[in-house]
User: What shape does this take?
Amino acid sequence: MGEAATIIDMISKGGIATLLGIVIFGGVKRIWVFGWQYSELEKDRDRWMGIAMDNLKLASKATEVAKP
Assistant: This one.
């Protein structure tokens, strides 16, 4: 709880500029991600998942054809 209290003290003393600095610092240090970064990651994940599923279907069909 000591760390949270320190951050709250800094915000109350420094105002909105300190809060903005903390938010930017947290994003740069990757403590959290911004919404646009998360959206891009989801799009990339979905694209690769689609490619993987298409290849899985193709491999399954190829093994069915190759069965004696």
